[in-house]
């Protein structure tokens, strides 16, 4: 279960002690169609994240360097595991329910120990694996209620076999969905909505692999059926994460039953398979697949945040704050800020709403008296750890990416100066 041991590349085979619901031609065609469309995501999932991200994750939850298995393939990657820790730190939940046990179970259990001591209930379709996970957690000084939940049930409106869930808590503060595998059916994880009426006010839902075609269809249906939950696809992991937040004052009602479709399911699936061959399905049926943010996106956002900061400086009615609390920022926004050079003086720190999601805009004066703004958010961009440079009128913007975080340094300075300052901030 740890990197000291060999873990298989492929997912575990289904238990032989139970039978999945019978599947017909429709389900087979859907799997073929979405397998052909989704192979880039499946290939990308072999990468579980950088070693640095894994070390940072282990440090966050107080685990040894070899406590986790080699991530990637069917296992959660570091980006998704960081999302789990972010949610636990933000909510300090009393009850977490997880569908699909494994590395996420240990990370979540440890995060709960460090943030309020809530209880984790984890369910997995493999009986022997569920038992091994529970023992593994105990060896690492963590605990959770890990149960065997065979894929023998069905949820109305969703294809494929679903977990036979017993003794599920009546109230759920954090719901983690990392199963069943897409090979059961591309839409199978949509059945997790059978638990949405148990979500407490302000609860968070985390769906792994949110950028895959099947999960995008699931997300579209959930948005229509559950308007009380705000679902957003966020970057920062190999296949994206769908994050749902239930409004604190909303009461969730069960979704209405949909009327049966006149066209038979197998004909629809056959049509999808045929359209896929022409490339039409990728854009029109699925509504477009996710791409990383273009470089212009983060540059434009950084430039806009710099303008907003300058405007705030000129207004006596707008309060600036130079207090920089990195722990609070990480806990409430999930954003890690890089260390600033010792000679820099922070003059303003503000949460900034951007098209990339919640961001942070920090204004500082360098040791040479130069005014710069650091923009930080969770995003996937074309950048890497070495800063790249762009110009916006009289401003220079250097941007780079570290793990799930994107940063940009902006100033009305020469390109060489801004690039040099950014390199100083980006240095490990």
Automatic annotation (TrEMBL):
Transmembrane annotation, as ranges: none
InterPro entries given in the database record: SAM-dependent_MTases_sf (IPR029063)
Record's keyword terms, sorted: Methyltransferase, Transferase
Keyword Metal-binding among UniProt keywords: no
Pfam families on file: Methyltransf_24
GO MF, any single term: methyltransferase activity
GO aspect biological process, one term: methylation
Entry annotated with the keyword Signal: no
Protein name listed in UniProt: Class I SAM-dependent methyltransferase
Organism ancestry: Bacteria, Pseudomonadati, Pseudomonadota, Alphaproteobacteria, Sphingomonadales
């Amino acid at each position: 279960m740890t990197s000291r041991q060999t873990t298989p590349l492929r997912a575990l085979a289904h238990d032989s002690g139970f039978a999945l619901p019978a599947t017909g031609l429709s389900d087979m065609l859907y799997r073929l169609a979405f397998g052909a469309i989704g192979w880039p995501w499946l290939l990308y999932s072999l990468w579980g994240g950088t070693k640095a991200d894994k070390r940072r994750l282990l440090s966050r939850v107080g685990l040894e360097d070899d406590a986790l298995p080699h991530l990637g393939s069917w296992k959660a990657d570091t980006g998704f595991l960081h999302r789990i820790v972010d949610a636990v730190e933000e909510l300090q939940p009393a009850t977490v329910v997880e569908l699909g046990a494994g590395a996420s179970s240990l990370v979540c259990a440890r995060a709960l120990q460090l943030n309020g001591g809530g209880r984790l209930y984890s369910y997995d379709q493999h009986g022997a694996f569920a038992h091994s996970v529970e023992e593994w957690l105990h060896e690492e000084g963590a605990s959770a209620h890990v149960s065997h939940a065979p894929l023998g049930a069905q949820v109305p409106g969703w294809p494929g076999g679903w977990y036979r869930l017993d003794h599920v808590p009546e109230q759920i503060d954090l719901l983690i969905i990392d199963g069943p595998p897409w090979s059961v059916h591309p839409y199978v994880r949509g059945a997790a909505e059978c638990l949405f009426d148990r979500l407490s006010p302000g609860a968070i839902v985390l769906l792994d692999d949110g950028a895959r075609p099947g999960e995008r269809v699931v997300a579209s249906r959930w948005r229509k059926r559950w308007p009380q939950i705000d679902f957003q696809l966020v970057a920062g992991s190999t296949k994206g994460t769908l994050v749902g937040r239930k409004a604190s004052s909303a009461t969730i009602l069960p979704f209405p039953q949909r009327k049966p479709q006149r066209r038979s399911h197998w004909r629809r699936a056959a049509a999808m398979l045929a359209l896929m061959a022409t490339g039409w399905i990728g854009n029109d049926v699925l509504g477009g697949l996710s791409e990383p943010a273009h470089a212009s996106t983060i540059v434009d956002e950084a430039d806009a945040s710099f303008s907003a900061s300058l405007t705030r400086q000129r207004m006596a009615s707008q309060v600036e704050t130079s207090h920089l609390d990195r722990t609070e920022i990480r806990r409430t926004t999930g954003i890690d800020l890089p260390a600033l050079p010792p000679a820099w003086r922070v003059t303003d720190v503000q949460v900034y709403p951007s098209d990339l999601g919640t961001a942070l805009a920090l204004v500082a004066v360098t040791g040479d008296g130069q005014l710069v703004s650091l923009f930080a958010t969770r995003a996937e961009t074309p950048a890497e750890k070495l800063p790249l440079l762009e110009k916006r009128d009289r401003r220079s913007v250097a941007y780079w990416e570290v793990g799930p975080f994107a940063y940009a340094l902006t100033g009305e300075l020469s390109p060489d100066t801004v690039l040099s300052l950014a390199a100083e901030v980006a240095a490990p």
